[in-house]
Design brief:
CATH superfamily of the largest domain: Endonuclease Chain A
Low-confidence stretches: 691-702
Structural class: alpha/beta
Number of helices: 18
Number of strands: 27
CATH class of the largest domain: Alpha Beta
Number of domains: 4
Largest sheet: 10 strands, mixed
CATH architecture of the largest domain: 2-Layer Sandwich
Helix content: 25-40%
Shape: globular
Oligomer: single chain
Length: about 700
């Protein structure tokens, strides 16, 4: 059969929009505490912003360059943009329906009001707002009028602005356009005095109410908030660039000048004002989003942060100490005794921080090598690496400057590390280094011992409390040899003759995954045990999907746990009948990558920094590592077992590309994230009874 027909694949952008609908479904879920629902709605808005700045922008670039090549689903860039515009408008309508019809009434039921304009304020609140504007807001504002001597100003990307039509009091026949940016340095949510309950007002409302104070010699005819999204997708010709760091700094400044690709404004905006914005921003009608409510729903994350509403939030989870680690004993002794598997955020990220911290101050440690893709704003990892260099250790750090939207942060850290005496590598030409690996070289009685940490997630202590990831800490000699080879390749392009356990992209990882999938196909055709379970963030690589279709057609049972984009379509007769796809959307962002292959009863299980996407397999430095100790394999198996039986937070993909919540009628509720939290606290494993299983899972043999 031909498994590469366009109708067997879903467009990645439309699949992503389906993912954001799953996040929105959490905001709609009446079983979730109210403030958690606000948070999910905020996340959908943040997600959509990035989608437009990167993915829609990329398609616009293709269109302008005359690029006509179809994607794996047979769609040209122009056709993709047309479908995206249609679906995105529907999605924004659904967002504000959820906000206006569901969340705002529930807030009011809980005595929390988001006040809208001057008419809703009582006298005490009006006095407060006037004083707040005069003392806190007015000094920060910069109103800008547009006339023959003052051109239309640069409207910065993602900023909230108020556009107005104004008229000189001495000349009431001519109107002028004026705009003022809502300052991001001030809190957008302003809490108002209230005798009972809680009332807040948005900063833009306060500014709108006081616009006449900004244009003293004018009458304000009308005023409306608006917001634009700009093309933030920049490409760098690394072959022609002499200094990557300097070039990226230049490109970051250009982001604010990118072409406008989306305009958001109130749905009641004056047509005269709208036409001025359309003309000067060069925006088409399809790119305008008319909003029935406050622009930029990310403000709801600030609502979530308001104090005094813990009863409307989920219980805060504190990551637990891993059962196999003892704080009284040094980390090196414990890793040397046994490989350690970490499951974040259920288990704390502290052992990873401690590994680097102890290495920095241990006189027996000779060298530390690490890759950094995204780190936190006040990273303890950076501090430890700088301390290690100051202590005279050899410290090599690859800081990936091309990590999208973290470029500026990473430039700051790279400079700090260089100043401390670290050898800093700014990524590789033409590739992003997305692998997560740390190598500590230590002199011990028996000689040099190498300690390695490999992970599926970033060395970011902040996101490690929010993202689910797997980490492996080992003193294995052969993995240590491979880790040394990885850093030698990164720093000096020195490739070893033989690799032991690690598989790298972009060199061998694609072929390795294809080999593992095709091996299961071969066993299925021979009537031998064959099974694939794969958990990842995204799946859109055509060659991998075609191999999975062939495996399914041969009889391999395939269960996929894909949080986001999934271009594979399950349930197609004679193509994907043996494939199921589920997506788990919960309080934590599912980020770990785990790959299981039954292998004729000799089960193999791997973790990786890579998804099954062309960018991960072909354009990034990624690592796939096996987990071979029986007890640790069982741990990973347990994770897959629980997630495949999740019937609370799982959404099951249908043949038409839509997702439906898992059916749990008559079944015990299984919420995988809640179970892992409870297990980490209680150190007792949850068992799914065989008769209750949604899928049959073989057991690891010793």
């Amino acid at each position: 059969m031909d498994f590469e027909k366009a109708e067997y694949y879903e467009n990645r952008e439309l699949s992503w929009l389906e993912f954001n609908k799953r996040v929105l479904s959490e905001a709609k879920d009446k079983n979730i505490p109210l403030f958690e629902r606000l948070k999910f709605l905020s996340i959908t808005a943040s997600n959509l912003d990035e989608f437009f700045m990167v993915r829609v922008a990329s398609l616009r670039n293709m269109l302008e360059a005359g690029y006509e090549k179809k994607d794996i689903a047979g769609l040209k860039p122009s056709e993709q943009l047309e479908l995206i515009n249609e679906k995105a408008h529907e999605f924004v309508t659904a967002q504000y329906y959820t906000y206006n019809r569901s969340l705002v009434p529930l807030l009011e039921q809980n005595n929390i009001k988001i006040l809208d304009g001057h008419e809703e304020l009582n006298e005490e609140q009006k006095e407060f707002v006037e004083k707040f504007f005069k003392e806190e807001v007015y000094p920060v504002l910069t109103p800008m009028a547009v006339d023959s001597s003052r051109p239309f100003p640069l409207i910065r990307n993602k900023t909230l602005n108020i556009g107005a039509l104004i008229q000189k009091k001495t000349n009431e026949t001519e109107m002028e356009f004026a705009t003022v940016q809502v300052p991001s340095v001030l809190p957008r949510i302003v809490r108002l005095p209230e005798r009972e309950g809680t009332s807040v007002i948005l900063l833009e409302e306060i500014i709108e109410m006081n616009l006449d104070k900004l244009f003293l010699n004018y009458n304000v005819i009308c005023a409306y908030p608006y917001r634009i999204m700009r093309n933030s997708d920049f490409e760098i010709d690394e072959e022609e660039t002499e200094d990557l760091l300097t070039e990226i700094q230049k490109q970051l400044k250009k982001r604010q000048w990118g072409a406008a690709i989306k305009l958001e404004t109130e749905d009641t905006i004056d047509k005269r004002l709208l036409n001025i914005l359309k003309k000067n921003l060069e925006i088409s009608d399809e790119e305008i989003y008319y909003i029935n409510g406050p622009l930029d729903l990310t403000f709801l994350m600030k609502m979530y942060a308001l104090e005094g509403f813990e009863h409307l939030k989920a219980e805060k989870y504190v990551p637990q100490k891993p059962a196999g680690l003892n704080a009284e004993e040094d980390i090196f002794t414990q890793i040397k005794r046994n490989d350690i598997l970490l499951h974040h955020p259920y288990e704390t990220f502290e052992p990873v921080l401690e590994l680097v911290r102890q290495a920095a101050n241990d006189p027996q440690v000779l060298a530390i090598k690490q890759t950094l893709y995204r780190v936190s704003g006040n990273s303890p990892i950076i501090s430890s690496l700088a301390q290690a260099a100051e202590n005279g250790k050899q410290v090599t750090v690859l800081v990936e400057l091309k990590a999208r939207f973290d470029e500026e942060n990473n430039i700051i850290w790279a400079k700090k590390l260089e100043k401390a005496g670290c050898h800093v590598i700014y990524g590789l030409v033409g590739l992003k280094t997305h692998s997560k690996i740390t190598l500590v070289v230590r002199r011990e009685e028996e000689g040099i011992v190498r300690y390695v940490h490999l992970g599926t997630g970033n060395y970011n202590d902040a996101t490690a409390k929010l993202y689910t990831d797997i980490g492996l800490m080992t003193a294995s000699n052969i993995i240590g040899e491979d880790a040394t080879a990885v850093f030698n390749m990164i720093s000096g392009y020195s490739e070893p003759l033989v690799w032991n356990k690690l598989t790298l992209a972009p060199i061998w990882l694609r072929n390795r995954f294809l080999y593992l999938i095709n091996r299961e196909t071969k066993y299925a055709k021979e009537g031998k045990p064959a099974r694939i379970i794969a958990k990842m963030n995204s799946l859109c690589d055509k060659e991998i999907i075609a191999a999975l279709y062939e495996a399914s057609n041969a009889g391999v049972k395939i269960d996929l746990i894909v949080r986001g984009i999934c271009s594979l379509i399950p349930g197609i007769p004679q193509v994907s009948e043996n494939i199921s796809v589920r997506s788990i959307v919960g309080n934590f962002l599912e980020h770990s990558r785990i790959y299981y292959f039954e292998n004729n009863g000799n089960e193999e299980i791997y973790c990786s920094s890579a998804d099954w996407m062309p960018r991960n397999l072909d354009r990034r430095v990624e690592i796939l590592f096996p987990v071979e100790k029986t007890e640790l394999k069982k741990e990973l198996w347990h994770i897959l077992d629980i997630e495949l039986n999740d019937n609370v937070k799982s959404h099951i993909k249908q043949q038409d590309g839509s997702y439906v919540k898992a059916d749990r009628r008559g079944k015990r509720a299984i919420d995988s994230q809640s179970i892992f939290c409870k297990e980490a606290r209680d150190k007792v494993k949850f068992e799914v009874k065989p008769e209750k299983r949604r899928v049959f899972l073989p057991r690891f043999r010793k």
